[in-house]
Write a structure and sequence with these properties.
The protein is built from 6 helices and 12 strands. Strand 2 and strand 3 form a beta hairpin. The strands form 3 sheets. A 4-stranded antiparallel β-sheet has the order 1-5-3-2. It has a 4-stranded mixed β-sheet with strand order 4-12-6-10. It has a 4-stranded antiparallel β-sheet with strand order 7-11-9-8, with helices on one face. It has 2 domains: 34-133, no CATH class; 144-246, no CATH class. Helix content is 30%, strand content 33%.
């Protein structure tokens, strides 16, 4: 084979390698479409095998939605314009109200897209957080500012003892939301989630209760204010007061992967 033929064959081989690389990139690393973050229907159209973490592509004013859809014995997840606190809570499976962010933690928002079963992606996502931001997290007990849940009116008609034969349920009817056979611990977890602050139960009430609250169709809990929550729990004869307490927190800090 003469020298010219060798050069031609080498060039063809190089072209094939480059083409193969492009093909693999197109197959395994598809362009991430912003529309996949829009709603559950669009998320279902996203291909499997993706674990994406990026600075948000959406304006600050965009609602920071989280979307889950069933997928392969797990869920697909799309998080749009989520805060660093929310991101840490998603990846570490911890209530955002108990995520402690140190001074200097990232203040920018993120997009997260996972189209593999979420439980299989968490360790990789923790490493991605560390490599992109330099932060990791671990559970510690520490003194923190909290909101203490206390009794203001023990005879409220909107929070009544639950019958022993009732089962836990929620139901909406005629402008009211009915929560049946729940403990106050179920309520405090939800309050922590929405208020982004630890809530400590100081009511001394350990039984099951039925709760009633006014609720308009289409109301978004993420858009409720502190006054809204005070009004809701006030209707149950409860109140929240600032306090300090030693509580378990997911503490975010600079770290290295061990």
């Amino acid at each position: 084979m003469n020298q010219t033929a060798k050069v031609v064959l080498l060039s063809v081989a190089l072209l094939l390698v480059v083409a193969a690389g492009v093909a693999v990139k197109m197959i395994w690393f598809p362009t991430i479409k912003d529309i996949w973050f829009q709603n559950a229907r669009q998320l279902r159209l996203a291909p499997g095998g993706l674990i994406v973490l990026r600075p948000t592509h959406f304006p600050r004013a965009t609602t920071n939605d989280l979307i889950y859809v069933p997928y392969q014995r797990g869920n697909k997840l799309a998080g749009r314009n989520v805060t660093f606190q929310q991101l840490i809570s998603i990846i570490y499976q911890y209530n955002p109200g108990r995520v402690y962010l140190p001074p200097g933690a990232p203040g920018n928002n993120f997009d997260i897209l996972v189209t593999v079963p979420l439980y299989t992606a968490r360790e990789r996502l923790k490493k991605m957080i560390l490599s992109k931001t330099g932060y990791t997290a671990s559970v510690e007990t520490r003194d923190a500012d909290v909101l203490a849940l206390k009794v203001e009116n023990p005879n409220s008609p909107n929070m009544t003892p639950s019958a022993a034969n009732e089962r836990q349920d929620s139901n909406f009817k005629n402008g009211k939301l009915y929560l049946t056979h729940m403990k106050l611990q179920d309520i405090t977890g939800g309050l922590e989630n929405f208020m982004k602050t630890p809530v400590v139960d100081e009511t001394g009430m350990s039984n099951y209760y039925d709760f009633t609250l006014d609720w308009k169709p289409g109301m978004n809990p993420n858009q409720l204010s502190r006054d809204d929550f005070d009004r809701i729990i006030g209707g149950w004869g409860l109140k929240l007061e600032p306090d300090t307490s030693s509580v378990e927190m997911l503490v975010v800090k600079k770290g290295t992967w061990l």
